[in-house]
């Protein structure tokens, strides 16, 4: 656990799913089709169960005064490059829109970086939607470099 003012970062529980989904559903840029519609809840529960069952993936929440203010997910991956080293990928970083600019995103990323250091990992990497220019400035300000170009292929 990490504390920052009244901010606590911890692994998410099943009880956090509605708040996490609400963060993604409110994201107008992401275009992931997330929704708070109750009919979609079983999909989110199934995803949470897969993430929780993995020894390489963790979904986190950042709580501010007991309310979910942000979320992110990490995945540890090992590659033959870098002499077989392991890296951490940070994904799905979201801070509640009304709470941005208060250091919550920086605290979440610092938590992931510290976790990677403790594990002796080689690299912390993340991707960000090309439209998120404010996020890009934020990531560069906290030490990330835009070193690669990413590609995606939608399958559904």
Q: Would you spell out the secondary-structure blueprint of this structure?
A:
Blueprint: E1 2-4, E2 7-11, H1 17-25, H2 41-53, E3 57-64, E4 67-78, H3 81-84, E5 86-95, H4 104-118, E6 123-126, H5 133-141
Parallel strand pairs: 5-6
Antiparallel strand pairs: 1-2, 2-3, 3-4, 4-5
Short description, anyone?
It is built from 5 helices and 6 strands, in the order ββααββαβαβα.
CATH third-tier fold name: Aminopeptidase
Taken in chain order, the helices and strands follow as: EEHHEEHEHEH
Give the overall silhouette: globular
Distance between the termini: 36 Å
Helix content: 25-40%
User: SS-based structural class?
Assistant: alpha+beta
**Total strands:** 6
Please identify, by name, the CATH architecture: 3-Layer(aba) Sandwich
What is the spatial order of strands in the main beta sheet? 1-2-3-4-5-6
